[in-house]
Amino acid sequence: MVGYPFIKSVLIPYSKLEKGKTGINQNCDKCHCVLCFRRNMDPDVGITRSPAHSSSNSTAFSVSALNNVLVSGMHGLGVEIAKNLIIAGVKNLTLHDYNKVELWDFSGSFVFHEEDLGINRAVVCRPKLQEINESVKISVLTSTLVKEDLKDFKVVVFTDLLLEKAMEFDDYCHEQNPPIAFILSDVRGLYGRIFCDFGPDFEFLDANAEGKAYRAMISNVSTAPDAIKVDCHVVEGQDVKFQQGDEVVFSNGKRMIGLHDGKPKKVMGVDLPSKFYIRNDPTNPPLDGTEVVVTKVTRKLLKFKTLRTFLNDRLSNPNIKITIYPLLHQALDTFRANLGRFPNAGSKEDAEKIIALVTDLNNEWPNDMRATVDAELLRHFTFGARAVLSPVAAVIGGLTAQQVLNTCSGNFHPMFQCQHFNLLRPSNLDPNDLKPINSRYDAQVSVFGAKIQKKLSAANVLIVGCGSISCEYLKNLTSMGVCCDKLGKLTVTDDALVRESDPNRHLMFRDQNIGQAKSVVAVAAARSINPNLRAEALQERLCPETESVFDYEFWKKIDIVLTTSSITNSVYVGERCFYFGNALLTSELAGPKIFSRTIIPHITNHFLVSLKYPLRVNDIEACVWLAERGLNELIVAAAVELPKFISDPNGYITDLRHESQAFKTFEMVLENLDYILNKTFEDCVRWARCKFEIHFVNKFSANDPTDMSFIKSASILRAWLLGIDIPEWAKFVDNNKFTEAMEGVEYSNNVKAVIEPNTPARMQKLIGELINNSSRLPRSYRVTPFNDAFVQSYGEQKLIFSVSLVNLLARKHGLPEIHPEEFKFIRRTNKVPEVSPAIASGLACLQLYQFVGGKRNLNDYSNVLVSLDSSCMKISTPVGASIIGTVANTALTPWDKWTMWGDPTVGDLIAFLENDDLRVIKVTFGCHCIYLSSIRAHNQILETKLLDLMRYLDNFQLPVRSRYKLLVTCEDNSRARADIPVYIYTSLW
């Protein structure tokens, strides 16, 4: 194997196993090792395939059609494009560059090291990029290109080409038969551009022509000598109609060789609207229609213009109002053509030349069509025009690579035809601070300045998890120089090991790392990119059970947290960041869509508010997402909370009793304990019926298969998790028995109206019942974990529950119901394109520049939504932090909190706050009033310890908390009032 380009000391070889001793039924024909078997097995559909198809993207079956791609210009942007295409599995990739590696290149690329200085960039990149996917054939060109050199390529991508040469190459590509797809992609500091020309008549199969893909599930496939007959499910609420001449694409087949190739098949005839014929190939093996989906596609024609024509047409079109960004790139090309170099960073003279060129270009337009010339923006652009920064390259490189993939796949609409990007705009820069300092960060210094570079190096950053996005985070941060000073530190935590499928999807992992700790491997790889990185790898999951590791001392050192949104972990991480006042950058991948959110203390709303982005339940995909969340709330919550309570009842109650969700959580735990001790399977059936009533009031019918599926699957899952015996009649799904179990149960028209108010007496009652029930549990009792073993045993019930919940939600919102196979298809096809992690990481790291740079204005930050299926990007300003009050002429937000240490008295607390010119009116702890200034007797308790007072008021003996929260009502000199939280950290534990 080729040596790993990043890790040099921690690799453990993954030994080959002898054939027949792998524990796997199949092996490759070459060396019979697990590695080769993994690369040739599709983990989702279980069919062998080419290593080039190892992508998780639903369009991967057609990537091999990209049999020859050229990427020219191997600085940071070119490397990002090539890396994404290699992960996607293109067949042949040619890297071109005639420039040599310079120190300036280090801020934009993760493949260059000091020993590479002076060597051709393409030559350096080839062996290091080859490691990502050995099945891709990578070639190198180092000579100057002429247009005839492009004739053998299907797609050519140029990342550093002057305008005149770009027009010459594009004219040549456009005239070929068939045309060569031409893409021009630039990164100039914080500005980017992508231009696409896929030919005068670019036809592609648009499965989303009407805004939503039309798909049908195949129920039966039968073959005849000259035809294949396909029967589809008639899904209620959908108009399933196939007509002669329609084109269809088959996917997800287990034995659909010959059909499952991504190519459209023409319908020869129809029996019914849901039954059609296609031509048969007698050489194909027998077909199996299990889990096969047929998609009706529409041919769409786009007429691309050449770059030359595109620019000329803009000048002649009276309906176009020019923007400043195209003029920036044209002026820079003119500057480079005239002087043979880029503008110098921090050079006021060069900036004035660019401003003059832009002004001249702008004056060529009529007065009412001219752009607004912003001199400050032009200077920023000029100073950093030569720089290619890693986060910007990640975003533009990911979008560019997706356009390359769009040339052969019909899933996503290609970019038509040119887009400009202004991803970030610094302000108030000192030109003298932008000049090179002879370091690997010179390109970044030319954009942000040496002062911000020092702040980046001294930052303390936490990355939660080592998934595909987190690996891209690491790549960007090391190139940016984050945490590379003795004052800075990068912490990466993940408790998982590298799995066999990870090297295909994660940039930092290789086959040699299988079985090793993800965090250790990722940090070692990051250090190999930048030896100056100061990083620590932790093998802990960030969760309530590890708060002794991630304690206050840990969190107070963290400046910013980077993570990815997931139902299971993101809420807890968001709560921790809100509690300790840490900035949070998070990204979420939802199929072809990418969400990037920015949470900044005191400036934006905290994560739990920001997570509720507008989600309209107007399609079945959204119902699938909500069903996944419902599964967690109704079933998985018991498997999460019960073990924590059972292992340490007193500590669990102590930690949660004063939290906002204490009543809800304690009720859920108590309910489950009651079922474990006293209930039978019939009680689980009645529990499921109650949950149905809460969510779908008065809609239940025992004769409705969907309603009964919900009851059956929910009760079986719950019983299995809690260790309740499941009778044989439930396993064989006896409807009469289930109906009998629900008889005699009365349901209120408004279940939520009978909820008991949350009072201190009720809290004491809940705590007493919890402790009493916990003492009755057998010592050997364990809650069944919701893990892979559970899925193997009860995966079918989990599927039935999810599908029934999806269909009940669909009914609620007036949507058509789906078949179980369609549910699985939606989950499969909603997978993430290969370029998404890179784009998501780049967007987050761009916001890190702003935070470390000290930006305090809400408009300096952005939330971003990227839709790869429509090639568009929407940038919005985050929602500002809400105002909860005003004291001392200062607006308070939910982020504001006061902190005391030790074992203070009531008087100490009052004196502590009066130092801030605040007058204490009232102090409360949970439901108890500790101090009220209007009551004279309360002045007698000023010498009483707060901890002793609270333990007396709560009237129970539990271990002393390490922290507790008080709510203090204060007023300032203007008598403006506000409730402020005060956190007391005691050392008496």
UniProtKB/TrEMBL annotation:
<keyword id="KW-0436">Ligase</keyword>
<dbReference type="InterPro" id="IPR042449">
    <property type="entry name" value="Ub-E1_IAD_1"/>
</dbReference>
<dbReference type="Pfam" id="PF00899">
    <property type="entry name" value="ThiF"/>
</dbReference>
<feature type="domain" description="Ubiquitin-activating enzyme E1 C-terminal">
    <location>
        <begin position="861"/>
        <end position="984"/>
    </location>
</feature>
<dbReference type="InterPro" id="IPR042063">
    <property type="entry name" value="Ubi_acti_E1_SCCH"/>
</dbReference>
<dbReference type="InterPro" id="IPR019572">
    <property type="entry name" value="UBA_E1_SCCH"/>
</dbReference>
<dbReference type="GO" id="GO:0004839">
    <property type="term" value="F:ubiquitin activating enzyme activity"/>
</dbReference>
<protein>
    <recommendedName>
        <fullName>Ubiquitin-activating enzyme E1 C-terminal domain-containing protein</fullName>
    </recommendedName>
</protein>
<dbReference type="InterPro" id="IPR000594">
    <property type="entry name" value="ThiF_NAD_FAD-bd"/>
</dbReference>
<dbReference type="InterPro" id="IPR042302">
    <property type="entry name" value="E1_FCCH_sf"/>
</dbReference>
<dbReference type="InterPro" id="IPR035985">
    <property type="entry name" value="Ubiquitin-activating_enz"/>
</dbReference>
<dbReference type="Pfam" id="PF10585">
    <property type="entry name" value="UBA_E1_SCCH"/>
</dbReference>
<dbReference type="InterPro" id="IPR018965">
    <property type="entry name" value="Ub-activating_enz_E1_C"/>
</dbReference>
<dbReference type="GO" id="GO:0006974">
    <property type="term" value="P:DNA damage response"/>
</dbReference>
<comment type="similarity">
    <text>Belongs to the ubiquitin-activating E1 family.</text>
</comment>
<dbReference type="GO" id="GO:0005634">
    <property type="term" value="C:nucleus"/>
</dbReference>
<dbReference type="InterPro" id="IPR000011">
    <property type="entry name" value="UBQ/SUMO-activ_enz_E1-like"/>
</dbReference>
<dbReference type="GO" id="GO:0005737">
    <property type="term" value="C:cytoplasm"/>
</dbReference>
<dbReference type="InterPro" id="IPR045886">
    <property type="entry name" value="ThiF/MoeB/HesA"/>
</dbReference>
<dbReference type="GO" id="GO:0006511">
    <property type="term" value="P:ubiquitin-dependent protein catabolic process"/>
</dbReference>
<comment type="pathway">
    <text>Protein modification; protein ubiquitination.</text>
</comment>
<dbReference type="Pfam" id="PF09358">
    <property type="entry name" value="E1_UFD"/>
</dbReference>
<dbReference type="GO" id="GO:0016567">
    <property type="term" value="P:protein ubiquitination"/>
</dbReference>
